[in-house]
Write a structure and sequence with these properties.
3-stranded antiparallel beta sheet; single chain
Length: about 60
């Protein structure tokens, strides 16, 4: 099991680190783990699940 920092998640999903922080404040978005007062980690499988849930599937030969 791999855990990612907010910066790694930001790069992976194309959202700003500040947006991830906002999501945590609003208790929405990707589930996360708080280690101590300032360390935040995301489970890689949760990030992938979030991406799959939010993406729009496009099949070859179809229009957007």
């Amino acid at each position: 099991m791999k855990y990612l920092t907010p910066k790694q998640v930001s790069i992976m999903i194309g959202r700003a680190v500040s947006t991830l922080a906002s999501d945590r404040y609003r208790d929405s978005g990707i589930p996360y783990y708080r280690l101590g007062k300032r360390q935040i980690r995301y489970k890689e499988s949760d990030v992938i699940h979030f991406m799959e849930k939010k993406c729009k599937k496009v099949y070859p030969g179809t229009s957007l």
